[in-house]
Amino acid sequence: MLPDEFDRTLAAARAGHGSALGELFHDVYPRVLRYLKAFEPAEAEDLASETWLDVSTVLASFQGDERGLRALAFTIARRRLIDLQRRLSRHPQVPIDDNLLADEGLTGDVEEEALTALSTDRAIERVATLPPDQAEVVLLRVLGGLPTADVARILTKRPGTVRVLQHRALRRLATDLVREGVTA
């Protein structure tokens, strides 16, 4: 969106116009969802929905541009993710044996299988194999479209550290692709 267009859309969303809120949603939500899928695929939809609810709640007091709104959304998403990971570490989930599910005929999720087939999801899966700090930097920079300074603020790291993590991540991904024989 252009800056003036974003300002008008934000003002309309604050005034309660559903179409304006929808425009902001369509810009922010898919990026946040892909980010969260890289870390907690099974919980990503719920976390992204909760994140959007938080974002929409603070829209009335939000001051900033489109980039600032995305930074806010990813900050909230990251906090939600950390909260979930803490909760899971205190109360681990016990996985169910796949054979049990197959016997009950409870396997298969068409939507999830379709999404997995998309190249974006494969790329995110590849990024998710990186060390967590590197993956987070790449996802915030690429999916979030956030500049280094905003990513540094979200992760509470120095901008130089963010650049180094991004460089290492991209170098590792490139090395993995070459090793697998995939050309760009």
Task: Offer a quick outline of the entry.
By secondary structure, the chain is mostly helical. 76% of the residues lie in helices and 0% in strands. It is built from ten helices and no strands.
What is the CATH topology classification name?
Arc Repressor Mutant, subunit A
Write down the CATH class.
Mainly Alpha
How large is the share of residues in beta strands?
A: under 5%
Principal-axes shape call: globular
Structural overview:
- The chain has a single domain, classed as Orthogonal Bundle (Arc Repressor Mutant, subunit A).
- Helix 3 packs across helix 4.
- With 184 residues, it is an all-alpha fold.
- The protein has ten helices and no strands.
Q: What keyword list fits this structure?
A:
about 180 residues, about 0% strand, mainly alpha, globular, Arc Repressor Mutant, subunit A
Write the layout of secondary structure elements.
Elements: H1 3-14, H2 18-39, H3 44-58, H4 66-90, H5 98-104, H6 110-117, H7 119-128, H8 132-142, H9 148-155, H10 159-180
Helix pairs in contact: 1-2, 2-3, 2-4, 2-7, 2-8, 3-4, 4-9, 8-10, 9-10
